[in-house]
Prior knowledge:
Shape: globular
Mean pLDDT: 92
Amino acid sequence: xxxxxxxxxxxxxxxxxxxxxxxxxxxxEHGNNSKDLVFTILALEQMEQIRPRALGEIARVxxxxxxxxxxxxxxxxxxxxRWNVFRRDYFxxxxxxxxxxxxxxxxxxxxxxxxxxxxxxxxxxxxx
Length: 128
């Protein structure tokens, strides 16, 4: 993999310290502020009913940053996307809602390929 890295790799063994875990987002088995980065990709999409608990747990375990690729309301405000979100009871949170959980958005983009019926935004937030 090092041969394919677009930039010089500062820590070739860094991947060995990455830990993936499986569990319930409403009861994460990690301590407060125990993860440098919490990453989600379309994980919250179908969790509208438990959105506050899920975001609360993500924020609780995050020590530094979160990076979320989720169907935030900003990219699903109109047309088929809005209809799809409401019909399926999908995630309806906004990027600004993250501040309610102590996560300050520092960067976001919607400039990447997405589904026709459901948009997603990538958001990097810092724990404050």
